[in-house]
Amino acid sequence: MNRRGPGLIGAAARTAVIAGTASAVTGRVQQHQQNRFAQQEAEQYAAQQPMPPAPQPAAPPAAPGDDVVGQLERLAALKQQGILTEAEFEAQKARLLAG
User: Fold this and answer.
1) Is the separation of the CB atoms in 74 and 45 below 8 Å?
2) In sequence order, which residues have a C-beta less than 8 Å from that of residue 37 and are 6 or more positions away?
3) Contact status, residue 58 vs residue 49, Cβ threshold 8 Å
4) What is the C-alpha separation between 75 and 81, in angstroms, rounded?
5) How many C-beta neighbours within 10 Å does residue 75 have?
6) For residue 23, is pLDDT > 90?
7) Residue 74 near residue 89, CB atoms below 8 Å
8) Residues 15, 17, 23, 29: what is their CA dihedral angle, to the nearest 10 degrees?
9) DSSP 8-state assignment for residue 84
10) pTM above 0.85, yes or no
11) Do 96 and 71 meet the contact criterion of CB atoms below 8 Å apart?
């Protein structure tokens, strides 16, 4: 073996290892940047999308008899509070029961 240095083959091998390592590192950096840019684009896209409206709770449909009973109860409460007279209460009650 030559005592002066690694020789031409050793230098070429060392250069190949360094170049390969640099290529691998560069490739990983580029992949990382591409992933980061893709994530930023996805976040920007999501931020631009309108939010769907919140679902409104559905009110249960009132049975026809329940509605009339509820209205009669409200009328009776208004009569007890003195807001409706006896005649007004009877007129409204007759209208509800006829309908």
Assistant:
1) no
2) none
3) no
4) 10
5) 20
6) no
7) no
8) -120
9) S
10) no
11) yes
User: Can you tell me the distance from the alpha carbon of 3 to that of 64, in angstroms, rounded to the nearest whole number?
Assistant: 108
Distance in angstroms (rounded) separating the CA atoms of residues 26 and 16: 15
| Contact of 14 with 6, CB cutoff 8 Å | yes
**φ, ψ for residue 61 (rounded to 5)?**
-65, 135
The answer to whether the CB of 75 falls within 8 A of the CB of 89 is yes
- Specify the amino acid at residue 76: A
d(CA 21, CA 27): 10
Q: Is a pLDDT exceeding 90 seen at residue 43? A: no
**What pLDDT does residue 53 have?**
74
Encoded amino acid at 17, one letter: V
